[in-house]
Specification:
single chain; TIM Barrel; two-stranded antiparallel ribbon
């Protein structure tokens, strides 16, 4: 979508929401967006943008990289000093019991009540039991992987899994990945509404691809996604995620402006 078209779309959505007295959405950032920067540089960028909530999703914190507890303690200290709250921890795939225990432990150290990741079969049942006992929630993250089939690509894939577990387990819906897989993100958000815990706000250039673009410039129907979230009175974190190599600071700043206008 060209800039003029995006502006018209934003204005149309804004007019449609005026007078409906809907609370604003909670806009934050997925920390993975700043994976090219040091942790300290990321905090500086977040502070400059006045971002108050994030999901901790940097690679060095994910389970497969065997992070040390001290990393989480230091991160929490630095975030709290900057006035930034960690709302969720992105663990990535939980494959075995040790992963489960570490994910819960890391969540506790960060001070979060929510973890995003994925698991299948009996492991998902163990997550349900363990997280329920610990007073945590777990959001299944849908994903697109070029050239391979992932367990959770469609809203139906996620809903099928959720039918086997308690409401401790819900959905962390990545609207960009739904679009990459060729599914309508608005329809996905609508179908997952009852179990929606967190949203990754991302736009992509085209289906069957992973090229990220500014919000509203791709095929993820971002203005309509935000309108649907407003209609649902969604109270969870809407975390902007921008996956790109190289400098991303200007693009993320623009994404934050767009998301706040739509919120």
């Amino acid at each position: 979508m060209h800039a003029a078209g995006l502006g018209l779309g934003l204005a149309t959505v804004s007019r449609g929401l005026l007078g409906k007295d809907r609370a604003k959405l909670n806009i934050g950032v997925s920390a993975y967006s700043y994976h090219n920067l040091s942790f300290e540089e990321m905090v500086e960028q977040l502070t400059a943008l006045q971002i108050k909530e994030i999901e901790m999703s940097r690679g060095e914190f994910m389970l497969m990289n065997r992070p040390d507890e001290r990393l989480f303690r230091l991160a929490r200290m630095k975030l709290e000093k900057a006035g930034i709250r960690c709302a969720s921890y992105y663990s990535a795939t939980i494959k075995e019991e040790d992963d489960l225990y570490r994910a819960m432990r890391f969540a506790k150290i960060l001070g979060v009540k929510h973890v995003t990741g994925d698991a299948t079969g009996n492991m998902l049942s163990q997550i349900d039991h363990g997280f329920t006992q610990a007073g945590l929630t777990f959001g299944i993250h849908n994903h697109y992987f070029q050239g391979e089939k992932f367990a959770y690509e469609t809203p139906g894939d996620v809903l099928k899994a959720l039918a086997t577990v308690s409401k401790t387990v819900g959905s962390t819906a990545d609207v960009g990945h739904f679009a990459s897989c060729g599914y309508d993100p608005v329809d996905a958000i609508r179908k997952l509404a009852a179990r929606l815990q967190l949203v990754h706000l991302k736009d992509v250039e085209a289906a069957q691809g992973e090229i990220n673009v500014l919000l509203g410039n791709g095929v993820a129907r971002i203005p309509e996604v935000m309108e649907e979230l407003r209609r649902q009175a969604f109270r969870g974190l809407v975390a902007i995620e921008y996956e790109k190599e190289g400098s991303v600071q200007d693009d993320i700043r623009r994404d934050v402006e767009i998301a706040r206008n739509l919120a």
